[in-house]
Amino acid sequence: MGERDLLPPPSAGEGIAAHTILLRPGADLTGFRDAARRLVAHGVPPGAVTWGIESAPSLFGGGAAPASETPLVLPRAVAALIPGVVPHRDPERYGLLYTLIWRSLHGERHLMEVASDPLVHRLYRMSKAIGRDLHKMHAFLRFRRVEGGEGERYVAWFEPDHHILEAAAPFFVRRFAGMAWTILTPEGRAVWDGTTLTYGPPGSRTDVPEGDGFEAGWQTYYETTFNPARVNPKAMKAEMPKKYWHNMPETASIPALLRGAADRTAQMIEREPTVPARREPARAVAAMADQDPKTLAELNAIIRRTEPLVPGATQAVLGEGSVGATLAFVGEQPGDQEDLKGRPFIGPAGQLLSRAMAEAGIDREASYLTNAVKHFKFTLRGKRRIHEKPTAGEVSHYRWWLDRELEFVAPKLVVALGATAVLALTGKSIPITRARGPFRFDRHDDRFQGFITVHPSYLLRLPDEAKEEAYAAFVDDLKRIAALGAELAA
Q: 436: exposed, middle or buried (C-beta count within 10 Å: 0-12, 13-18, 19+)?
């Protein structure tokens, strides 16, 4: 991860109380950083420091320590956590953070990696609470327009749970850079004039107007887009607590919208037939089944000319091998290389499978290889197509093809490579670790025997130190498959 200098040297001439540190009210990140640097420089342990707020009387007297020019170097994880905890309302936050710093610099440099440590656990929970409070402010703060001598201006009132105003304000600068606005809270205010962000004294809810034309338009929009079929009041209150409702214009409509949800849902259902019907994959599969192919070649011709049930694929990737093969291997879906070249198991996972089959004495050319899903499903990241796991519904849609394919090939033993293949062959989600080995696929009426093992792509994802052992276990599975296949073919 690396380390970096968290705390710059303090300004010359500044002093500090030897054992009692008084910081400004709210989230005094700068003051805490300076104090922590000086305390560490003078070897003051956490137990010898009392942290307080400037407005509170000191119980232990003063005493100044000279400023330290020594920079404080902290582990990156510690440095990153501090700004996320300082805004917390817990009065012990500064003492806890200084304890974390002290321990990190005195023999516990990797302390942040020990999530079970009580101090680390508590600070992480405090950081998450700040994250939730920031999310609430970003999502639930509403501006109202004010007309005055200085022209158009927007004002908002918000009551955060923690001291997050200074941490939250830059978000609104980025989002509403062209507006002049003020955010008022019980502890302070943030003012943006279009150029400079400043902070000032607290405000009051009465400083914000009750409503404006913009708010009325927003309320109308909310009522229009409200979906009555997805009403869940319990989940709504969990995500948007009622304490924020009186500052949000749209919430005034919620009671009436909830009362009318049942009637509006019924109206939506009645109007549904007037919406143009969308072609569903299940209907497309049913239409394919009606064609009743008589051979594997006819089945493959149907697959080739059928629109993919997952979007974006270049072509259908069909099974490869001979009708009557003793062994049939079923994988998940084609990958990037398979999609481009139209052949199964030719990418990195396929190359690993070929090597393992050769070591186990299985002739790939004499076997049949296919996939549960016939088209490549992916997510585009830049120019790269990243494999995306098919859903259970998509596996179900392709099951008709796989069943007919295996019916035509008529293998003696079908090998399920990975969980998706198991789902396609059994209709159930079965853990590989529990079912690995010979297995009976009840759906197929004993037309063939089964065997479950891992998909070769699983081996590629393992850390280097675990690959050798896992690969050896995979080859052992293939040797058992070869022996069982020979026994069934005899």
A: middle
